[in-house]
Amino acid sequence: MTGIHREQVIDALRPVKDPEIGRSLVDLGMIKDVQIEDGTVHVQVELTTPACPLRARIQTDVEQAVKALPGVHQVKVAFSSRVRAAGTGMTSRTPLPGVKNTIAVASGKGGVGKSTVAVNLAVALAQDGAAVGLLDADVYGPSIPTMMGNRGRPYLQNDKIMPLESYGVRIMSVGFILDPERALIWRGPLVSQLITQFLNDVDWGELDYLVIDLPPGTGDVQLTLVQRIPLSGAIIVTTPQDVALADAVKGLQMFREVKTPVLGIVENMSYFICPHCGGRSEIFGFGGGQRTAERYDVPLLGQIPIDPAVREGGDAGAPIVVSAPESPTAEAFREAARRAAGRLSVEAVRKPRKPTIMLKPGA
Fold first, then answer.
1. 112 and 77, same structural domain?
2. What percent of the chain has pLDDT over 70?
3. Which CATH number goes with the domain that contains 66?
4. Long-range contacts formed by 325-329: CB under 8 A, 24+ apart
5. Residue 5 — pLDDT band, cuts 50, 70, 90?
6. In this structure, is residue 357 part of a structural domain?
7. CA 63, 66, 68, 71 torsion: positive or negative?
8. Binding site for ATP: which residues?
9. Which residues, if any, are the signal sequence (predicted)?
10. How far, in Å, CA of 159 to CA of 26, rounded?
11. Which of 202, 222, 252, 316 has the lowest tally of Cβ within 10 angstroms?
12. What is the domain range of residue 207?
């Protein structure tokens, strides 16, 4: 092919923006390679997360920009991904070794399905190709071992606690250590010590995301976390009813006070679809999550329907994104996980970065 050079392709791609971050793919260093051969242009795009919610749009925009060049007959876009560490605000806190992003999943009150959301978000991110860990910090009600179908025992290796693994997610919970029928009767200092040990003494390895399932409310565990490590972001789980929303707002405000970005709200148990007539019922009210998100200027990451399969999968140790991956509920969880990952990508590139274009010679 004559008359066109890779520099022209790069120039054509400069106006193309990451639709969520709002900056040029070239300036963000997301164009990793350009090859030109016999009228075909091959473009390698490095996404900021394998769970990119707008991959199809990026592909379309890249194809259209390059096809506008004279002499281009075909454009082939290939994707890779590299998760970047999001900004952490308070730099005095030491990040966990090897962990790029820590996501706190919180709720103002119990009974809203917070652990179910945490489990399905973590597994959904892993299914998209991310390296994911899940820390069960709900020490008084550890449900992750049951929901993830793992009753193993952690072991020590090189003086580190090795997490267990289910569905491609590395998991740690006090439920792996205690008798499942035994209540944890500990005061705040002991709970804080346990959480600190899970953070410092567990060999999480290299993770793109560590999802942390917090206990309800704004107590000792939450304070320990925000004091010990820089949280990349928080997800608030609620139901549409006013009582749950009022408590959810308290959790949202707590994270803002400690300078942790709120990635968004997940409205669980949003509605019920009758399996017989197909009618939709808003059992716990309608639109509460959306109104709260708009009022406090945070995204509504997802509205998760009431689905008996969620309860069945949780009891059986098979999250719905695994047991019924094609269901609307599983898709709602996947979309929420991708939107959260997208929000973290935005946080990661808030500060201007020098463009990094890596082109192979001899196009």
1. no
2. 91
3. 3.30.300.130
4. 325/127, 328/273, 329/304, 329/305
5. confident
6. no
7. negative
8. 108-115
9. none
10. 44
11. 316
12. 99-325
